[in-house]
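Quiz preparation item.
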């Protein structure tokens, strides 16, 4: 009995060794798994979507945006054919010009006309939105403002097709100084620019008041030309260089021909004298 006790202890000790190894092995695996689970790949940094760039970076000269022929037709006897520029502290984002004139027809009365064109340009801004979106918001505001003109009678707004990306004509009549005026305001948007054209007319001293149809037709014509001035591409540097090179070449050729002609004439004259 006493002899078998040490032997039994040795068997139990040996049997316990694999169990401890297995447990240690499991503990090690468990630790690796925990470490593996806790280590995650770095999350991708979220970036805000960028707004689209503004289509137009500049504005045309307002007083040159409508052709002289149109001014002569719409505002006969204009006081200043070149127009009166509006005041602006930043001509890159806002500009305007106006014309007015009285066509005196003697005993038949007189016709008065007034035309105004305005431009508002918006840049794209990450916090405010794209230039086009900001211009669309301004377009909507200006249409509402034209419809709410104080004292306007019979105000009506209709879409004006073929002018920029969107356009609305607002027509109404207004009495000023006991004279009846017909008004038409055309608000248009092209890209990030809003174009506003207001045209009105009245007959003085018994002359007939112009029809609303004629006034809005002429206002839309002027608006289409103003929008075209915004959309007109500026001459590229290469085009300007090419034009300059052509002019220089032409001037050089002319000068060379003139010099050659003089030399030939001089030589011929000397030859004739000797003979």
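Solution:
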């Amino acid at each position: 009995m006493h002899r078998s006790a040490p032997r039994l202890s040795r068997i139990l000790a040996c049997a316990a060794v694999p169990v401890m190894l297995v447990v240690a092995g499991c503990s090690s695996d468990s630790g690796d798994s925990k470490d593996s689970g806790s280590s995650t790949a770095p999350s991708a940094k979220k970036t805000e979507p960028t707004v689209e760039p503004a289509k137009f970076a500049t504005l045309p000269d307002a007083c040159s945006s409508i052709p002289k022929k149109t001014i002569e037709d719409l505002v006969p006897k204009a006081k200043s054919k070149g127009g009166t520029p509006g005041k602006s502290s930043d001509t890159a984002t806002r500009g305007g010009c106006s014309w007015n004139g009285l066509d005196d027809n003697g005993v038949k009365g007189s016709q008065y006309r007034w035309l105004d064109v305005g431009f508002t340009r918006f840049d794209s801004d990450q916090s405010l939105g794209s230039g086009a979106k900001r211009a669309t918001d301004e377009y909507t505001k200006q249409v509402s403002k034209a419809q709410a003109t104080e004292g306007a009678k019979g105000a009506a707004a209709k879409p004006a097709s073929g002018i920029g990306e969107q356009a609305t004509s607002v027509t109404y009549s207004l009495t000023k100084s006991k004279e009846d005026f017909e008004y038409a305001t055309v608000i248009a948007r092209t890209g990030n620019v809003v174009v506003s054209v207001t045209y009105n007319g009245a007959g003085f001293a018994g002359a007939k008041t112009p029809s609303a149809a004629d006034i809005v037709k002429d206002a839309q014509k002027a608006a289409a030309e103003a929008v075209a001035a915004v959309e007109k591409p500026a001459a590229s540097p290469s085009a300007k260089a090419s034009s300059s090179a052509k002019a220089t070449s032409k001037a050089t050729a002319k000068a060379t021909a003139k010099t050659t002609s003089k030399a030939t004439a001089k030589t011929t004259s000397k030859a004739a004298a000797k003979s």
